[in-house]
């Protein structure tokens, strides 16, 4: 196997990239918390909708990753280039259409979430600006997927670093108002996000088209092929439907938490930002494993692919559990970085303890889900995942958290049960070797 397809070579840049992307969200929340807790809660709700768009763009980028890596493993470079070009054209069209639709529904979405008056305008503004510019994320996701599939993981990482630096500077200017910069609050944070994404896209475009080993065609639109688009969609649609279903279920549960009050809603946002640092290892290792097992399947090395998955699973579950325990021990100190509200502090710290049950299951989900996607086994796992998240996570959260009045902790425990159920199902599916046949 070529050196750039080894698991460490693939994974460490993805890990740094994901860590930086998480840092971008946390910087936004941290700086907004200096503006107001209300703004944090509203932007947290808005980001639930935007995450649905990002997951929708994953239809193409995921399908491209699997198709390109398997084609390269089989030695068919021409098909890999055509699949990459087809993916980029497809996500460009989807991204522009999605951005237009988001601009139209920004206000109805915020009304639908039932936000209190002081949160409504913040949410509408953020969805309008960041959601309206989300086509930039569609292109960044596709180009990053192409480069990683060809074994070049460092370039997307460097772009992510640049986006973070630009976003931090922009947020500092609009929130802390040095040099007499006028106060822009949530709108300023949203504009800063869009500008940094745009500049990052320009840099990533230059990197992709100048890479001589990939030799990506400048007139890439000519390489669009409908049959390859269908191949990509066959892989991408089931997984994307699962992702969108997950994000939609999270939107609905966020609505449940909103019923509990502003403090639980804000606590959820803070915990979600903190525990993203817990699962970044399993998320990155899952993506690296996905590329490698796709390459190995294309090359016909099935047992080597199986051993890679087992090693990744053990590492991811162990690391997720250890980090979640550390975060639970220092929960109040971590939440204290965002707020001094005692109700939010105590509630969020308790949720971090419950999160230690969730994280190993999430790691299993990341590794096994990504591995099955890498070998093209997507339909049945997606159906099982959708059933689990709605039956366990949504229904269970509503009955215990809202109807029975058990609150945010109970909702989090049902999150954990859902993650474990999906992870165990996919492990059984992998061990059955159906993907090999």
Could you outline the blueprint of secondary structure elements for this entry?
Blueprint: H1 7-35, H2 37-73, H3 77-112, H4 117-132, H5 135-149, H6 154-176, H7 185-210, H8 226-260, H9 262-275, H10 280-298, H11 302-329, H12 331-335, H13 342-374, H14 379-403, H15 407-431
Helix pairs in contact: 1-2, 1-6, 1-10, 2-3, 2-4, 2-5, 2-8, 2-9, 2-10, 3-4, 3-5, 3-8, 4-7, 5-7, 6-7, 8-9, 8-14, 9-13, 10-11, 10-13, 11-13, 13-15, 14-15
Provide a quick synopsis of the model.
With 437 residues, the protein is an all-alpha fold. The chain is 84% helix and 0% strand. It has 15 helices and no strands.
Helix content: over 70%
Query: Which class do the helix and strand fractions yield?
Result: mainly alpha
Radius of gyration over alpha carbons? 21 Å
Q: How many β-strand runs?
A: 0
Rounded to the nearest angstrom, the distance between the terminal CA atoms is 23 Å
Strand proportion: under 5%
User: Can you count the helices?
Assistant: 15
In sequence order, what are the helices and strands, one letter per element? HHHHHHHHHHHHHHH
Global shape: globular
Regions with little confidence, pLDDT below 50 for 5+ residues: none
* Sheet with most strands: none
Mean pLDDT: 85
């Amino acid at each position: 196997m070529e050196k750039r397809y080894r698991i460490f070579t693939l994974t460490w840049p993805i890990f740094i990239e994901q860590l930086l992307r998480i840092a971008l969200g946390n910087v936004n929340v941290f700086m907004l918390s200096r503006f107001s807790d209300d703004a944090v809660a509203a932007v947290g709700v808005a980001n639930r909708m935007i995450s649905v768009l990002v997951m929708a763009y994953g239809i193409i980028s995921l399908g491209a990753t699997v198709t390109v890596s398997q084609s390269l493993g089989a030695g068919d470079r021409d098909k890999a280039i055509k699949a990459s070009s087809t993916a980029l054209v497809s996500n460009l069209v989807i991204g522009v259409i999605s951005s237009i639709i988001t601009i139209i529904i920004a206000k109805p979405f915020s009304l639908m979430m039932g936000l209190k008056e002081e949160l409504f305008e913040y949410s509408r503004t953020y969805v309008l600006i960041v959601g309206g510019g989300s086509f930039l994320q569609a292109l960044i996701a596709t180009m990053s997927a192409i480069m990683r599939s060809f074994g070049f993981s460092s370039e997307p990482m460097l772009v992510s670093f640049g986006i973070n630096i630009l976003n931090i500077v922009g947020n500092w200017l609009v929130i802390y108002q040095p040099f007499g910069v006028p106060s822009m609050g949530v709108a300023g944070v949203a504009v800063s996000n869009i500008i940094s994404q745009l500049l990052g896209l320009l840099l990533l475009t230059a990197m992709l088209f100048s890479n001589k080993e990939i030799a990506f065609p400048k007139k890439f639109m000519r390489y669009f092929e409908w049959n390859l688009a269908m191949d990509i969609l066959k892989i991408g649609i089931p997984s994307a439907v699962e992702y969108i279903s997950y994000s939609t279920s999270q939107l609905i549960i966020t609505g449940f938490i909103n019923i509990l009050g502003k403090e639980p809603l804000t606590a959820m946002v803070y915990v979600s930002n903190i525990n993203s640092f817990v699962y970044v290892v399993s998320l990155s290792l899952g993506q690296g494993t996905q590329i490698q097992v796709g390459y190995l399947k294309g090359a016909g090395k099935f047992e080597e692919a199986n051993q890679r998955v087992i090693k990744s699973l053990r590492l991811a579950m162990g690391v997720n559990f250890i980090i979640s325990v550390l975060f639970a021990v220092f929960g109040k100190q971590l939440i204290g970085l965002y707020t001094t509200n005692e109700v939010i502090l105590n509630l969020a710290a308790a949720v971090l303890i419950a999160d230690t049950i969730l994280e190993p299951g999430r790691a299993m989900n990341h590794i096994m889900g990504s591995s099955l996607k890498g070998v093209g086994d997507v339909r049945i796992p997606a159906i099982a995942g959708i059933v689990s998240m709605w039956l366990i996570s949504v229904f269970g959260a509503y009955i215990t958290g809202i109807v029975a009045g058990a609150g945010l902790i109970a909702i989090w425990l049902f999150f954990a049960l859902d993650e474990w159920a999906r992870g165990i199902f996919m492990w059984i599916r992998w061990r059955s070797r159906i993907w090999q046949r």
